[in-house]
Amino acid sequence: MQCGIPTVVEAATIAADSLTLLIQKVQEQAQSNDFLNQLQEEDKYALIKEVLAPEEYNFIVTPKEIDSLIEKMKDVVARGINFAIN
User: Which of 4, 45, 78, 81 could be 16's S-S partner, Cβ–Cβ 3.0 to 4.6 Å?
Assistant: First the structure.
């Protein structure tokens, strides 16, 4: 049995999430903007990945606190396994 914990994220995911937050903020200011409404409904991740891929900008990144996260998650997984077995 193997157990994995995702510790990386694609740059396209970060950009898509950031774009969603930007659109929401702009929409708060301007109630009716057709372009932003359309962009909000489209698959931003696929669009951003398509733009980043040819330029090789779609990096895989880890958060700066990765060491701390791994330490915490190893304890969570170990306790979960121990709880399931006992």
Answer: 45
Task: Give the pTM.
Answer: 0.49
CB 19 within 8 A of CB 48: yes
Res. 3 pLDDT band, cuts 50 70 90: confident
Helix (H) or strand (E) holding 10: strand 9-10
Rg of the chain (C-alpha set):
19
DSSP for 11-60, written as a single string:
HHHHHHHHHHHHHHHHHHH-S--HHHHHHHHS-HHHHHHHHHGGGT---E
In a domain, 31, yes or no: yes
Q: Which domain holds residue 34?
A: 9-85
